[in-house]
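ugh ok so i messed up the first submission bc i forgot one of the chains. this is the corrected input, ALL of the components this time, i swear. 336 residues overall. if the numbers dont match what u have on ur side tell me asap before i send this to the collaborators (the ones from the other lab, u know who)
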Amino acid sequence: MAEQAQTWRTVWEARDSYQAVWRRLLSAGQIEELVFTGCGSSYYLASSAAAAFSKWTTYSAKSVPASEWLLYPDQHASGKRTLLVIISRSGTTTECLLVAEAAEKMQGVRTLAVTCHPDSALTQRCDDTLAIPAGREESVVMTKSFTSMLYLLLISGALLGENRYAQAELAGLPDRIAAWTQLEAEGKALSGQDYRTVVCLGAGPLYGIAQEAGLKVKEMAVQPSEVYHPLEYRHGPKSIVNDQTLIVLFASDRGREYEPQLMRELKQLGGRVWVIGGSADLFSNVDRHTPLEKSAGDWTRGLLGLLPLQQFGVHYAIRRGYDPDRPRHLSQVVQL
Ligand code: F1P
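and heres the new structure output, hopefully the right one now
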């Protein structure tokens, strides 16, 4: 975790140089819309980043999987002057490269690469780059690179939108995670039993985090997982809940009226319930409640909330006899 905190500090310290890139691209292209894209973890990151930019800036922002933009640009391109933010840890994933290439021929579309590899093919194909050199990681599974790139994008959104509250909160995050002594214990707490399914729930900006959480347990521990918006889970999927189901909720401020009741219901159906964030008094009956800073809004909370889940993935995988850094069937870069 110390390493992750250190990388975040590097990102925070470089914020002015990142901001200069945003301003240059946005004004030169007279940009009206932001589209965040990527594959796998990087697409989930895109989804949370788009939610923050929609909330904090005046730009309309959305996320689209790179493969969908590639195959159905007509369905996703709005015709507005667009900045396509292409996120890829490696900068060499095929779909991302093809999207960047296709964008060169689209009128009014400019491209920005967000990557941990500043000298990659993607950066050569994009108009500009935001890179985290210290974000490189050996593991096939994205952990530090995911949170660092999301941190970079959250800082960018908070600065562009001049949201001082979010900026102050983001400034303090590296120290907060460095001092989070309970983090490993939180991740370990429910990792001692085998589950048939792990269900990850998150609303709004936390949906991308829930998607990433679901992917982490799949990749690290070969664990079947499902992801839903919390209240969607009531509309059918809950019929599979039993005592071998672990339900992880990334609790949101906006959901505080509904999510506690949903968790009570799932507990009554026999599920094991883990709530990350939200008030302890609202979730008193769950199997585990992991408190997060009260001040953190839904848009920044996910970044903190993902950390115990990453820890869970590591401990759960090792206990089940898997190497969490080397998932079967997967390589660091997926190329077609
Ligand atoms: C994204 C990705 C990850 C996946 C695995 C392989 O690559 O597909 O989502 O977990 O690590 O790479 P990238 O485009 O961000 O390099």
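quick check: The two ends are 33 Å apart (CA to CA). that seems consistent at least. The beta strands are 33-38, 60-65, 82-87, 109-115, 128-131, 197-202, 225-228, 245-250, 272-276, 288-290.
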